[in-house]
Write a structure and sequence with these properties.
heterodimer, A: 410 residues, 17 helices, B: alpha/beta, four-stranded antiparallel sheet, globular
Chain lengths: 410, 249
C-alpha cells in the first residue's frame, strides 16, 4: 500500500556553490567605483582595528580597573564582611543551576554561559591580590565555586527531577529578600548600612528591584487603563502620562528630595530605597504602555470565547488575555529591561555610587595621576564590557523566548 | 429533573429587542426551544441572526424582553449570567481557540477553573471528546498547527467539555475551506442525533434539511417565518423567504 516516496535528504533549498574569488568579485569588486569603495573602507577598517589593538596591548591604565576590582564590584562594603556578597551570589548561582537542570532550554543556556564566564573570571582573578583583612574566599576560588554550583545544581536537579519544581519556585521568590537580608544584615549579622553599598552590586540590586517591582505595577496600570471604572481609568491615565512626560533624572530627584518632605519620617527613608522607588515608578509607566499594546492586540473573540465558557473576568484576564498580551510584547519588555539596567547609572546624580560611579572614582584616584593620558579609557572600557555582558544576555534570552513562541505558533 | 420533558421549553425568548445606537437590530423576537430540539436559524447577512443567538448567553445585551434559559432568567446580575453561560456552550465562526494553549489545555481549561474538576478528570473527559470528534492524536498540538476543520472540531469539544445542556453554533462552517465543511457538519449531525439541544446559525441548507427539527428564517431583525424543514423548503409562505431560498438553492 505504502508507495515509496523519495525524500529530499535536506529540507533546505539547494544553494548554489560559489567560490570565494567569485563571491568577492560579485559583491565587492563588480564595478570600478565598487573597487574604490572597497579599498578605501578596507584601509579605514584595518587602520582602526590595528591602532585599537596596539593601544589595547600597550595601554598603561589597565591596572586601575583590576587592582580596584573590589571597588567596582562592591564599592565601600566592609572588607571583613565581603563573604556576604559572595554568599548572596552563591545562593543565586545555586538556584540558577538547579533551575537549569529542571527547566533546561533558555535557563540552561544562561546557566552554562554564567559557568563559562565564572571559570574565565576565575583564571583572571588569580592575579588579584588579597585585600588586607579579607575574610572572604579569594576571588579565583569563589568564581570556581560559582561554576561548580551552576553545573552541580544542574546535575542535581536532573537527578531529583520534578519533585523540585515547587520548592524551587518558592526558593526563587524568597531569594530576593534573602539576598537583601544577607547584604544588609540584622538578624544575628552586623548591619551594613546601604550607604556603604555600591558598584556592580548596587547596579544589579537597582536593576533587579526595578524589573521585579515595576512588572506587576506596570501590568496593573495597563489593566487599570482599560478598566470600565472611570476613577481607576483616569488615575492610571494621569499617572502614566505624568511619568512619561518627565525624564528619569527628574523622577530620581523627586524620589531623593521630595519624597522625604511628603512622607512621615521621610528623612529616615533609605537613599537606596528611594532610588528603587523612583526607578520602579518610572519604569512601570512605560511598561504599562507596552503591556497595553499587547492587550489591544488580542482579538475580541478570545474574550468572548472565554466568557462563553463561563470564565469570570479575573480568570479571563489571568488565563487568556494577559498571557497572550505578555507573549506578544516580550521583545519590547526585554528591550525596556535592558534600558532600565543601563539607566540605573543615573543614580550617580543623587549620590549613590553604582558601577559607573565607582569607575569615576577610580579614575580620579591620585595614584593614577602620573599615568600618561590617565586611566579613564581603560577603566570605562572594562565597565562597558560588564554592562554589555548583562545586556547581551538579556537580549539573547528574549530572542530564545521569541523563537519558542514562534515555534508553538507553527 | 424532567423525565422526558419533551414539551417543556429550555429556551424562552419573549419580545426580545435590541438596538445598536439608533439601529434596531432585533425586533420583538420570540422563540421557544424544547429540550433536545435542533433549531436552524437562517437569513440574509445583517438580518440579526448572529446577534440573536449571542443574546442567549449574553455576549450581546438585549434592552427589552425576557430571555429564560433552563429556568434561569437573564438579568444584569452577573451570577445569573455566569450560571447561564455554564449551561450553554458556544461555537464561533472564527473558532476562537486560545492560541497559547495546547488542544488539551484549551479543552480542560474551563472544566478545571469553572467546574472545579481535577486535572485528571478533565483530561480523561477531554480525550473522550477528542475521540468523539476524531482528532485524539492532536491533543498536544497548538491550535495554530491544525487545519481549520480540525480547529473547529476542537472548539466543539471545548464547548462540550463543560457538559452544556444547550449548544449555540454561530456560522460554524463559514470560515472553513470547502473541503473541511463536511468533517465539521458530521460532528454536528452526530451531536444533534445524540439529543443535544442545538441552535445553529448556518447557511448549510443540506444540514438544515437533514437534522433540523425546525427552521427559523430571520430578516431585518425579525423572525419572518418558522416551520419544519419540509414546510420551509417546499412550501414557504413569506415572500422574503421565497426570495432568499431562490437565491441560495
Amino acid at each position: 500500500m505504502a508507495t515509496e516516496v523519495s525524500r529530499p535528504t535536506s529540507r533546505r533549498a539547494p544553494r548554489q556553490q560559489i567560490g570565494l574569488i567569485e563571491w568577492l568579485r560579485k559583491n565587492l569588486f563588480s564595478t570600478w567605483y565598487n573597487v574604490i569603495i572597497t579599498v578605501v573602507l578596507l584601509y579605514v577598517i584595518v587602520q582602526t582595528v590595528t591602532s585599537f589593538v596596539s593601544w589595547m596591548v600597550t595601554a598603561p591604565g589597565w591596572p586601575a580597573a583590576f587592582t580596584n576590582i573590589k571597588l567596582l564590584l562592591t564599592w565601600t562594603y566592609p572588607v571583613d564582611q565581603l563573604w556576604r556578597p559572595q554568599a548572596a551570589m552563591a545562593l543565586v548561582m545555586l538556584l540558577l543551576g538547579l533551575s537549569s537542570g529542571l527547566w533546561g532550554g533558555i535557563v540552561r543556556m544562561v546557566a552554562l554561559g554564567a559557568a563559562v564566564i565564572s571559570v574565565a573570571l576565575g583564571f583572571v582573578a588569580f592575579t588579584f591580590p588579597d585585600l588586607p583583612g579579607q575574610t572572604s574566599l579569594p576571588g579565583w576560588l569563589f568564581m570556581f565555586i560559582c561554576a561548580v554550583l551552576l553545573v552541580g545544581g544542574d546535575q542535581l536537579a536532573r537527578l531529583v527531577g520534578n519533585k523540585l519544581r515547587w520548592p524551587l519556585i518558592i526558593a526563587w521568590l524568597l531569594a530576593y529578600p534573602a539576598v537583601i537580608l544577607i547584604l544588609r544584615g540584622g538578624i544575628g549579622l552586623p548591619v551594613v548600612e546601604t550607604k556603604l553599598w555600591g558598584g556592580l552590586t548596587l547596579t544589579l540590586i537597582l536593576a533587579v528591584s526595578g524589573i521585579v517591582l515595576s512588572f506587576p505595577l506596570g501590568v496593573l496600570l495597563a489593566l487599570g487603563r482599560r478598566s470600565s471604572l472611570p476613577v481607576i481609568r483616569t488615575f492610571c491615565v494621569l499617572y502614566i502620562e505624568l511619568i512619561r512626560g518627565v525624564p528619569l533624572v527628574t523622577v530620581l530627584f523627586m524620589g531623593a528630595l521630595l519624597l522625604p518632605l511628603f512622607l512621615p519620617g521621610g528623612e529616615s527613608i533609605d537613599a537606596l530605597v528611594r532610588a528603587v522607588i523612583a526607578v520602579t515608578l518610572f519604569s512601570a509607566a512605560y511598561l504599562a504602555e507596552n503591556v497595553r499594546g499587547g492587550l489591544q492586540s488580542i482579538p475580541k473573540g478570545q474574550v468572548e470565547a472565554a466568557r462563553a465558557l463561563g470564565l469570570n473576568v479575573v480568570q479571563t484576564t489571568l488565563l487568556i488575555t494577559l498571557p497572550q498580551a505578555l507573549r506578544a510584547v516580550v521583545p519590547v519588555l526585554v528591550g525596556q529591561f535592558i534600558a532600565l539596567f543601563k539607566d540605573t547609572s543615573l543614580v550617580v546624580i543623587i549620590g549613590l555610587v553604582d558601577l559607573l560611579g565607582a569607575a569615576q572614582n577610580i579614575v580620579g584616584q591620585p595614584e593614577w595621576l602620573g599615568t600618561p593620558g590617565g586611566v579613564w579609557r581603560e577603566t570605562f572600557l572594562v565597565i562597558a564590557a560588564i554592562y554589555w555582558v548583562f545586556s547581551f544576555t538579556m537580549s539573547r534570552i528574549s530572542k530564545r523566548i521569541e523563537d519558542q513562541i514562534a515555534r508553538s505558533r507553527h | 429533573m424532567s423525565g422526558n420533558g419533551s414539551s417543556e421549553p429550555i429556551i424562552i425568548c419573549e419580545n426580545v429587542n435590541k438596538w445598536y445606537g439608533n439601529f434596531h437590530a432585533l425586533k420583538d423576537v420570540s422563540l421557544r426551544v424544547k429540550r433536545g430540539e435542533v433549531v436552524v436559524i437562517c437569513g440574509p447577512s445583517g438580518s440579526g441572526k448572529s446577534t440573536f443567538i449571542r443574546t442567549i448567553n449574553r455576549l450581546e445585551e438585549h434592552q427589552e424582553g425576557r430571555i429564560i434559559v433552563d429556568g434561569i432568567e437573564m438579568t444584569n446580575d452577573i451570577r445569573n449570567i455566569d450560571a447561564i453561560r455554564r449551561e450553554v456552550g458556544m461555537v464561533f465562526q472564527q473558532f476562537n481557540l486560545f492560541p497559547h494553549l495546547t488542544v488539551l489545555q484549551n479543552i480542560t481549561l474551563a472544566p478545571i477553573w469553572v467546574r472545579k474538576k481535577t486535572r485528571k478528570e478533565a483530561e480523561a473527559k477531554a480525550f473522550e471528546l477528542l475521540e468523539r470528534v476524531g482528532i485524539r492524536e492532536q491533543a498536544y498540538k497548538y491550535p495554530g498547527q491544525l487545519s481549520g476543520g480540525q480547529q473547529q472540531r476542537v472548539a466543539i469539544a471545548r464547548a462540550l467539555a463543560m457538559e452544556p445542556r444547550i449548544m449555540l453554533f454561530d456560522e460554524p462552517t463559514s470560515a472553513l475551506d470547502p473541503e473541511m465543511v463536511k468533517e465539521v457538519l458530521d460532528v454536528m449531525k452526530t451531536l444533534a442525533r445524540s439529543g443535544m439541544t442545538m441552535l445553529c446559525v448556518t447557511h448549510e441548507m443540506g444540514f438544515a434539511r437533514e437534522v433540523a427539527d425546525r427552521i427559523v428564517f430571520m430578516d431585518q431583525g425579525q423572525i419572518v417565518e418558522e416551520g419544519t424543514p419540509d414546510q420551509f423548503f417546499t412550501n414557504p409562505r413569506n415572500e422574503r423567504t421565497k426570495l432568499f431560498l431562490s437565491q441560495i438553492l
